[in-house]
From TrEMBL, chain A:
This is Pyruvate ferredoxin oxidoreductase, alpha subunit. Coiled coil: none annotated. The lineage of its organism: Bacteria, Bacillati, Bacillota, Clostridia, Halanaerobiales. It is an enzyme of class 1 (oxidoreductase). GO terms for biological process: response to oxidative stress. Residues 262-366 form the Pyruvate:ferredoxin oxidoreductase core domain. One of its GO terms (molecular function) is pyruvate synthase activity. The keyword Iron does not apply.
From TrEMBL, chain B:
InterPro entries: Oxidoreductase_gamma_subunit, PorC_KorC, Pyrv/ketoisovalerate_OxRed_cat, Pyrv_flavodox_OxRed_cen. It is an enzyme of class 1 (oxidoreductase). This is Pyruvate ferredoxin oxidoreductase, gamma subunit. It comes from the Bacteria. Keywords: Oxidoreductase, Pyruvate. Pfam families: POR. Its EC number is 1.2.7.1. GO terms for molecular function: pyruvate synthase activity. Residues 13-186 form the Pyruvate/ketoisovalerate oxidoreductase catalytic domain. The keyword Oxidoreductase applies. It comes from Acetohalobium arabaticum (strain ATCC 49924 / DSM 5501 / Z-7288). The keyword Oxidoreductase applies.
TrEMBL record, chain C:
NCBIfam families: PorD_Arch (NF040684), PorD_KorD (TIGR02179). It comes from the Bacteria. GO terms for molecular function: 4 iron, 4 sulfur cluster binding; metal ion binding; oxidoreductase activity, acting on the aldehyde or oxo group of donors, iron-sulfur protein as acceptor. This is Pyruvate synthase subunit PorD. Coiled coil: none annotated. It comes from Acetohalobium arabaticum (strain ATCC 49924 / DSM 5501 / Z-7288). Its cofactor is [4Fe-4S] cluster. PROSITE patterns: 4FE4S_FER_1 (PS00198), 4FE4S_FER_2 (PS51379).
TrEMBL record, chain D:
It comes from the Bacteria. The keyword Manganese does not apply. Keywords: Oxidoreductase. It comes from Acetohalobium arabaticum (strain ATCC 49924 / DSM 5501 / Z-7288). Residues 48-216 form the Thiamine pyrophosphate enzyme TPP-binding domain. The lineage of its organism: Bacteria, Bacillati, Bacillota, Clostridia, Halanaerobiales. GO terms for molecular function: oxidoreductase activity; thiamine pyrophosphate binding. This is Thiamine pyrophosphate protein domain protein TPP-binding protein.
C-alpha cells in the first residue's frame, strides 16, 4: 500500500522520519534543512511519533546527543546542512568510529565562505572520509527511498555504520514533485525493530563507550571500519533489491541511463543527474551516442562496478559539485579516475566542476559538456582535464 | 518534453506566489500530471519581488534547473510591471496573466509584449469574497481558464480538497476562496 | 607488520567493534601498585574504623569488611599517603618501599 | 534525607575500581567515588575528555562498573542529554523499565570553557541529569594550561608568572552562579574534604527531577604543586579562607553550608601551592592583597544571598 502525492523534499524526508519513528531525534535548524526540523516538531507535538525530540543548542550538540542516544540503544536520527555539518565535524567521525547506525539527512548546501545558502556538495564531500555511508538522490522520491533503506543499512550487523542521506538543497528540498509515499506500516515493517547488541542502558551488562584508544589498538579499530564499509556494499545491494521488490523502485550503486551503446558519457550525482537525462534524450534524438551514470552510493565507492559499467566509453566526464582545491579536480573525479588506473581501460576521463553556490546548471550546460566530449573523442586530445562549467571568465 | 508547460509566478513576499505555485502543482498532480513547483530559492522577504515556478507535463519530469523560458507568466501584483521585467524569456506565443483593473490592450502596450495578455481584478475579487486582497487563489482560476492545462470542474474539486486540508482550522474561508476562483475564471479578460 | 610487543595482542577481527569495552571494571587487571614509593601500614589496634581513609582514597584501595578497615589493596594503592595524613588517630604510617629482596 | 554515615556507605560496592591511571593523590577519583556512593541505582556516566576520562578508560581497560560514555571534550552534557533522551523514549515505549540515573563529568576546561555551551543547552532543556564539574583550575590533562576557572595570579603553562606578568590576569569565572541562573532545581558548590556535605549534595542532585549541577573543587598535586598527601588540608584552607565557599541553591533558595568560625587569611590557601609561589616574592604583596579583597567581596555577596547578614 502506498500513495501518490506531491510533496516538497522537506515534507518527504520529515514523513520518512515520521514513518521510521525513531526513538530519539536531536536536531538544530539550518537553511535549507530547517523545514524538516519544523515539520518533524509538529509530528512530535501532535503525538504522531514516539520520538523524544531533543532541541539542542547547536549542531555540535545535535550530533553529540545523537551519538549518546544511539549508544543508549535508541534508533537515533538528526538532519543538517552545510555549516551545520561542519560544526558537527568532530563528532561525525566519532559516530562512525563508535559504529553507531545513525541516519542523517543532509540537505546539501555550499559550505562557507563567503556565506551562501544554495546547493552544492561541498558539505557532504568534505565529510567523505569520515567513515559514514553516503547516498545521493536525484529527486525527493530517491531521498525518501534512501532514508528508509538507510535505517536497515546502518543497523545491519555486518555494517553498523552511520548513513548520510543527501538531498540537494532548495532544488529538491524546496520543490514539490510527484512521488510515492509508502504506507506507514510498510515502512515500519521494512525497517523493523532495532535491537542493538550493546547499549549503555543495559545495566546488567554495563559497557564503556569511547575509551582512549592508543597505539596498540586504534589501528585495529580503524581496520574494522574499512571492513564494515566493504560489507556495506553487499548489504546496500541486497536491501536495494528487497526495496525494489516491495516498491518497484530502486537503484543499487548507480543507475545506468542509455549507457549500453554509449560512446560518450557523464557521471553525475544528485539532482543534476535528472537534468542530464534530458540532455541525453536530446542528443540521442540527434543520433549522438550519449549516456549517463547516476551515482547513488559514493561511500563506500563502487570501484569495480563503475569501471565495468563505463569501460566501453571513449570519453567520460565526471561532474563534481564541489572542488578539492588540489588543482587536479573534484572529489568524485579523483575516485573515478583512480578506479580507471587499475582497470587500464582506454577511457579518457575529464572533470567538470559545476554549480557551486547554487549556480543553475541547465540542460544546455550539460549539452555543452557532451559537445566537448565529442570533440575529445574525435581528436583524441584533452585540452583541459579539469573544467569549470558556467563560471564567468 | 513535447507537452511540457513551464510557468513563472511573479509576486511580492507575503502575497502567496509560492503558495499558488505549490497549490497548482499539488492539484495538477492529483489530476494525473507530473509536476514540479518551486520558489525562487532563497530567503523570502515581505514586500520584495519574488518568483515561483511550475512545470507540468504528461511525461516524467527529471529536469532540475530553473525555469528560464516560461510559456505562461502570472503576475500577482500590478506594481511589479514597473519593478521587474515580467516578460523576460517568454516566447512569442507565450501568455501573461496579470492581476490588474486595466484592460489587456493597455497592459500589452505598456509591456510592449508580442504574446497574449490577460487581466483580472484578483484583488477586487478576493476583497469581495474573502474580505482582503489575497490575489493568489483567484489567479489560479484565471490561469486554468486561459490555459488548457486542467479541466475546470476537476480542478475545483481537487482545490477544494486541498483547502479542506489547508484550512482545517478555519473552514469558513474555504467558500470565499472557492468563489473567488470561480469568479476569476469567469471574469478574466482577453484582448 | 605489527611490532613484536603488539604481535601477541588480538587482531582486528577479534577485538570488539567501535572500541567498546564489554567487561565493566576490568581495569582491576591493571595493577598500579608498582607506582608506589611509600606503602601504607595500618596499626589495627589504633584504628577506630572511622573510615575517613576509605572515603578519601583516590584508588579504592582501602579494604573494609563489615565496617572494619582491615588493610590496603596493594595491587592498586599508589602510595599517595592521604589516608595516613587524614587518619585522626595516626593508625596509618607510610613506609618506604624497599627493592624486593626475594630470591 | 538520612545523614551520611561512612560505615553504612562502606557496605556499598565500589563503582570506580582501582587500576585506573590517575595521578597518585588525584582529587578527581575521590570526588567520583563519593558521588557514586550517593546512589544505589544504575548510573550511566558520561565524561568529557580530560584527566578523568583518559585515565579511567584506557582501552582495553575500564575502571567503571557502570555504563560509561566518552564522546569528546566539549560535549559531555550534550552526550548525556542524548542518552537520557534515549532512556525517556524507550521507557515511555515500555522497552525498558528500571530506574537509571544520568551523571556527566567534566573538568573545568570541559565545563567552564569549551563545554560551556553544551552544558548551558542541557541545563536549559531540563534533562534529568547530574552534571559534576571537577574543578582543578586548569587544563591539567594536557600540562596545566590556564582555563577560565584558573584563579587570578596562578602560574600555568599558558599564563606563566614572568618578569612582567605575574601569572593569570583574570579572576575565575563564577560558573556555579551562571548555572544557577538557568533556574534548574539544584545547584551546589562542594569539596570532597567535606565528604558528608558532598555525598548529601550528590544524593539531593540525584533525587531532584531535572538537571542538577555540582561544582566540586578538585585538588591536583601536579598543577597546584603541593605534597600529594596534603590534599585535604589544602581543601580545608580553601573553604576556611572562603576562596571556595560551600553553598547550594535549591529551587531558587540559596543556602550557605559552611561558615568558618574564623575566616582564615587567603595566604593559608595560597602559600602551600607552588603555582602561587611568585606572589610571595618581596614586592608582590599587592598581589596577595588583591586576591584577598576579591575573596572578601565575593564572600560578602554569598553571605548576603544566603541570608547570613543583616
Amino acid at each position: 500500500m502506498s500513495n501518490e502525492v506531491a510533496l516538497t523534499g522537506h515534507e518527504v524526508i520529515a514523513n520518512a522520519m515520521r514513518q521510521i519513528n525513531p526513538d530519539v531525534v536531536a536536531a538544530y535548524p539550518i537553511t535549507p534543512q530547517t523545514e524538516i526540523v519544523q515539520l518533524f516538531s509538529q509530528f512530535v507535538a501532535d503525538g504522531k511519533v514516539d520520538t523524544d525530540f531533543v532541541t539542542v543548542e547547536s549542531e555540535h550538540s545535535a550530533m553529540s546527543a545523537t551519538v549518546g542516544a544511539s549508544a543508549g540503544g535508541a534508533r537515533a536520527m538528526t538532519a543538517t546542512a552545510a555549516n551545520g555539518l561542519a560544526l558537527m565535524w568532530e563528532i561525525v567521525y566519532i559516530a562512525a568510529s563508535t559504529r553507531l547506525p545513525i541516519v542523517m539527512p543532509v540537505v546539501n548546501r555550499a559550505l562557507s565562505g563567503p556565506i551562501n545558502i544554495h546547493c552544492d556538495h561541498s558539505d557532504a564531500m568534505g565529510a567523505r572520509d569520515s567513515g559514514w555511508i553516503q547516498l545521493y538522490a536525484e529527486d525527493a522520491q530517491e531521498a525518501y527511498d534512501n532514508a528508509v533503506q538507510a535505517v536497515r543499512i546502518g543497523e545491519h550487523e555486518d555494517v553498523r555504520l552511520p548513513v548520510m542521506v543527501n538531498m540537494d538543497g532548495f532544488i529538491i528540498s524546496h520543490a514539490v514533485e510527484n512521488m510515492e509515499l509508502l504506507a506507514d506500516e510498510d515502512v515500519q515493517e521494512f525497517v523493523g525493530e532495532y535491537e542493538p547488541e550493546n547499549t549503555l542502558l543495559d545495566s546488567e551488562n554495563p559497557i564503556t563507550v569511547g575509551p582512549i584508544d592508543l597505539q596498540d589498538f586504534y589501528f585495529e579499530h580503524k581496520r574494522q571500519q574499512v571492513d564494515a564499509m566493504e560489507n556495506a556494499k553487499d548489504v546496500i545491494a541486497d536491501i536495494a533489491q528487497e526495496y525494489k521488490e516491495m516498491t518497484g523502485r530502486g537503484v543499487e550503486y548507480f543507475e545506468e541511463y542509455k549507457l549500453d551503446d554509449a560512446e560518450i558519457g557523464i557521471l553525475a550525482l544528485g539532482s543534476t543527474a535528472g537534468t542530464a537525462k534530458v540532455a541525453v534524450d536530446d542528443l540521442r534524438e540527434q543520433g549522438v551516442k550519449a549516456g549517463l551514470l547516476k551515482l547513488r552510493m559514493f561511500r563506500p565507492f563502487p570501484t569495480e562496478e563503475l569501471v565495468e559499467a563505463l569501460k566501453d566509453l571513449e570519453v567520460l566526464a565526471v561532474m563534481d559539485r564541489a572542488d578539492t582545491f588540489s588543482t587536479t579536480g573534484g572529489p568524485v573525479f579523483a575516485d573515478v579516475r583512480s578506479a580507471f588506473y587499475d582497470a587500464k581501460a582506454d577511457v579518457e576521463v575529464v572533470n567538470y566542476i559545476y554549480g557551486l553556490g547554487g549556480r543553475d546548471t541547465r540542460v544546455e550546460d550539460i549539452e555543452s559538456i557532451y559537445e566537448d566530449l565529442q570533440e575529445i573523442a574525435a581528436s583524441g586530445k584533452v585540452e583541459n582535464r579539469v573544467n569549470y562549467l558556467g563560471v564567468r571568465e | 518534453m513535447a507537452n511540457l508547460t513551464e510557468i513563472r509566478w511573479h509576486g511580492r513576499g507575503g502575497q502567496g506566489a509560492k503558495t499558488a505555485s505549490i497549490l497548482l502543482g499539488k492539484v495538477a498532480s492529483k489530476t494525473g500530471k507530473n509536476i514540479q513547483a518551486f520558489p525562487e530559492y532563497g530567503p523570502e522577504r515581505m514586500g520584495a519581488p519574488v518568483l515561483a515556478f511550475n512545470r507540468i507535463s504528461d511525461e516524467e519530469l527529471t529536469v532540475h534547473c530553473q525555469v528560464t523560458e516560461p510559456s505562461i507568466v502570472t503576475v500577482l501584483d500590478p506594481t511589479l510591471l514597473e519593478a521587474v521585467d515580467v516578460t523576460e524569456g517568454i516566447p512569442a506565443d507565450g501568455k501573461i496573466i496579470i492581476n490588474t483593473t486595466k484592460s489587456p490592450t493597455d497592459v500589452k502596450k505598456e509591456l510592449d509584449f508580442e504574446g497574449e495578455v490577460y487581466t483580472v481584478d484578483a484583488d477586487g475579487i478576493s476583497t469581495d469574497e474573502i474580505g482582503a486582497a489575497f490575489p493568489n487563489t483567484p489567479m489560479l482560476g484565471a490561469l486554468v481558464k486561459v490555459t488548457d492545462l486542467l479541466e475546470f470542474d476537476n480542478f475545483k474539486e481537487q482545490v477544494e480538497k486541498e483547502f479542506k486540508k489547508k484550512f482545517a482550522s478555519k473552514p469558513e474561508v474555504i467558500d470565499g476562496n472557492m468563489k473567488s476562483i470561480e469568479r476569476a475564471y469567469q471574469e478574466v479578460k482577453s484582448e | 607488520m605489527a611490532a613484536k610487543k603488539d604481535a601477541q595482542k588480538p587482531g582486528w577481527k577479534e577485538v570488539p567493534e567501535g572500541g567498546l569495552i564489554l567487561e565493566a571494571g576490568n581495569a582491576t587487571e591493571y595493577k598500579t601498585g608498582g607506582w608506589r614509593t611509600h606503602r601504607p601500614e595500618l596499626d589495627i589496634d589504633q584504628c577506630i574504623n572511622c573510615h575517613r581513609c576509605w572515603i578519601y582514597c583516590p584508588d579504592s584501595a582501602i579494604v573494609s569488611e563489615d565496617e572494619e578497615v582491615t588493610g590496603f589493596d596493594h595491587d592498586y594503592c599508589k602510595g599517595c599517603g592521604i589516608c595516613a595524613h587524614e587518619c585522626p588517630v595516626d593508625a596509618i604510617s607510610m613506609i618506604k618501599e624497599e627493592p624486593s629482596t626475594e630470591e | 534525607m538520612s545523614k551520611v554515615n561512612l560505615k553504612e556507605l562502606s557496605h556499598q560496592d565500589e563503582r570506580l575500581t582501582g587500576g585506573h591511571r590517575l595521578c597518585s593523590g588525584c582529587g578527581a577519583s575521590i570526588i567520583v567515588r563519593q558521588i557514586l556512593h550517593a546512589t544505589q541505582d544504575p548510573v550511566v556516566v558520561g565524561c568529557a575528555t580530560g584527566c578523568l576520562e583518559v585515565s579511567t578508560t584506557i582501552y582495553p581497560y575500564t575502571a567503571w562498573k557502570d555504563s560509561f560514555i566518552h564522546n569528546a571534550f566539549e560535549n559531555s552534557a550534550a552526550t548525556v542529554s542524548g542518552v537520557e533522551a534515549a532512556y525517556r523514549s524507550l521507557k515511555k515505549q515500555g522497552k525498558i523499565d528500571e530506574e537509571t540515573k544520568f551523571l556527566a563529568f567534566g573538568g573545568d576546561g570541559g565545563t567552564y570553557d569549551i563545554g560551556f555551551q553544551s552544558l548551558s543547552g542541557a541545563m536549559e532543556r531540563g534533562h534529568d541529569m547530574v552534571y559534576v564539574c571537577y574543578d582543578n583550575g586548569a587544563y591539567m590533562n594536557t600540562g596545566i594550561q590556564r582555563s577560565s576557572a584558573t584563579p587570578r595570579n596562578a602560574s600555568t603553562t599558558t599564563s606563566p608568572a614572568g618578569e612582567v606578568i605575574p601569572g593569570k590576569q583574570q579572576f575565575r569565572k563564577e560558573l556555579t552562579d551562571i548555572v544557577a541562573a538557568h533556574n534548574i532545581p539544584y545547584v551546589a558548590q562542594a569539596s570532597p574534604h567535606k565528604f558528608k556535605d558532598l555525598v548529601r549534595k550528590a544524593k539531593k542532585a540525584f533525587e531532584v527531577e531535572g538537571p542538577a549541577f555540582l561544582n566540586v573543587l578538585s585538588p591536583c598535586p601536579r598543577g597546584w604543586r603541593y605534597p600529594e598527601d596534603e590534599a585535604m588540608d589544602l581543601l580545608r584552607s580553601a573553604t576556611d579562607s572562603c576562596f571556595w565557599p560551600l553553598y547550594e541553591c535549591e529551587d531558587g533558595e540559596w543556602k550557605l553550608n559552611y561558615k568558618p568560625k574564623e575566616k582564615a587569611p587567603i595566604t593559608d590557601w595560597l602559600k602551600p601551592q607552588g603555582r602561587f609561589k611568585h606572589v610571595f616574592k618581596e614586592g608582590n604583596e599587592h598581589l596577595v592583597d588583591e586576591i584577598q579583597e576579591h575573596v572578601d567581596q565575593r564572600w560578602e555577596t554569598i553571605l548576603h544571598r544566603c541570608g547570613e547578614t543583616e
